[in-house]
Design brief:
By secondary structure, the protein is α/β, with parallel strands linked by helices. It has one domain: Vaccinia Virus protein VP39 (Rossmann fold, 3-Layer(aba) Sandwich), CATH 3.40.50.150. The chain is built from 6 helices and 8 strands, in the order αββαβαββαβαβαβ. An 8-stranded mixed beta sheet has the order 1-4-3-2-5-6-8-7, with helices on both faces. The longest helix has 13 residues.
Length: 236
């Protein structure tokens, strides 16, 4: 099944035995008692259009705070670095594994970050997760390039994905990509620009600087090249 068809609201937890996977049990419990800023499955149904209200630890009016989504947040190092440096913005991390979601949420809690929320979801099912114009930026650092031709349909960047995030982004919205695969980078540029984005040198939220990641540090240590680009909506 292509990843794009996965229902992010499905009760995926029901497929796992909580006694056999400690991270499943921890995630379920954290969602119930609010111990960690996490959400999964059916609980996400009321999130589209009301994401800012889910950051309950932040008091006051959050309607003007930029909402930034990192797709593939791994264990949350980059996500938390961004959130710590930019307390004026709200950050949502998305990952596909229970373990990474729990580790990211625990990292945010341990660093005292109130502007972080973490979601268990496959980014291929992103379409129903956010309302039109709700998000201010998508960060995609080193998404799986699925280098084999037979796996190409699993790639994050596609015309469908770019069209979806274009609709979900606000007028000042952006996409930020980094990848170590030149063919994937070229393909992503083609798709992104074909749906109405334009390249930009700076981003509204991240004008002050760049952010590294685990994968980027690995590539730099090995002397391997990587490629990056930032895009904003044409009407920004």
């Amino acid at each position: 099944m292509p990843v794009r068809s996965i229902d992010v609201f499905a009760d995926v937890v029901a497929k796992f035995d909580n006694d056999c996977n400690a991270f499943v049990a921890k995630l379920v419990q954290a969602q119930q008692d609010g111990a960690l800023p996490v959400a999964i499955g059916p609980a996400l149904r009321d999130f589209p259009g009301s994401w800012r209200s889910k950051f309950t630890a932040i008091e006051g009016d959050k309607s003007k705070m930029p909402l930034i989504v990192e797709i593939g947040c791994h264990t949350g190092q980059t996500l938390c670095d961004m959130a710590e440096r930019h307390p004026e913005a709200l950050f949502v991390g998305i990952d596909i594994t229970f373990k990474r979601v729990v580790h990211t949420a625990e990292r945010a809690r341990d660093r005292g970050l109130k502007n972080v929320f973490v979601v268990l979801a496959n980014a291929g099912g992103l379409a129903p997760l956010f309302s039109e114009g709700e998000v201010d930026g998508f960060v995609t650092f080193f998404p799986d390039p699925w280098v084999k031709k037979k796996h190409a349909r699993n790639r994050l960047y596609s015309e469908s994905f770019c069209s979806t995030v274009y609709r979900q982004l606000s007028a000042r919205g952006f996409i930020w990509l980094k990848t170590d695969q030149l063919p994937y980078f070229e393909m992503a540029c083609e798709f992104t620009e074909s749906v109405g984005f334009r390249e930009t040198a700076s981003l509204p939220v991240f004008a002050a600087g760049d952010f590294s990641s685990l994968f980027l540090r690995r590539f730099e240590l090995k002397g391997q090249p990587w490629y990056g680009r930032k895009w904003v909506k044409l009407n920004a």
